Amino acid sequence: MANITAGMVKELRDKTGAGMMDCKTALNETGGDIEAAVDWLRTKGLAKAAKKAGRVASEGLVAVESSGHVAAAVEINSETDFVARNTDFQAFVRESAKLALNTDPTVDALEAAHFPGSSTTLKERLNDLIATIGENMTVRRVAKLTVSDGVIASYVHGSVSEGLGRIGVLIALESKGDVEKLSALGRGIAMHVAAMNPVAIDASDVDPAILEREKAILLEKHQGKPAAVQEKIVESGLKSYYKEVCLLDQAYVHDGSKSVGQAVKEAEGQVGAPVKITGMVRYALGEGIEKTESDFAAEVAAAAGGR
What is the DSSP string of 141-177? Predict the structure, then answer.
């Protein structure tokens, strides 16, 4: 076996942009021949995938998948929305969501998972897809909800296919009531979540750091007032804030005369048992990804000048 040095690994990594362990494996497979190792990485799709890894991927698809009392949501990104129409990409995203039902809800765990009856991992399949389609793609995030009794309702907005779209929502409802009625209630709430984008289920679920920032903003607006007055202002301001961002406090999109919490309470009569929302996931495609704006005319001009 050839003696693979750190310098050789670095040289191969610089040439291909592939990961360090992939470079070491390639060198071992090719007896330390750098150029043969480059070709080995290319045949595996690793070099091509790595070269594209710096390009912003903010398009793609969100998928939701449910199996009994377990449901998962994944977001897999691509560079352009054209890829979202690619049937191979759609199949990959759908199968990724199915795999997520049986893995830990982390990107690393999902990428390391093997497809049923195959020795191929999701990460390896993704690299093959990158090499075939020619765009950078990333598994961005994954979430999973479970219930002991009840249902996990889902909704996909901007759907391109069953369970695939631009916004995916999961809502976990714990209840021993009628499953059909519970499912209908859950779907209505999931649609509400897609439209209103709450950040928490209720006030106790709001990130403390976010609350402190809201309090600071309220106090900043009312500097100089007595402490007792400021305390009342903060209390009132936070109540208004909860109505904006907490699911149970928001006005229900299907009936603005009541909150989501009131709608759930009223539905308990039809469901035949108490209902509690125990989990919520809302993935909107590309949210939070900083997109680079390009000047297409300048790119064309630069390309023309370089001929």
Answer: EEEEEE-SSEEEEEEEES-SBTTEESEEEEEEEE-SS
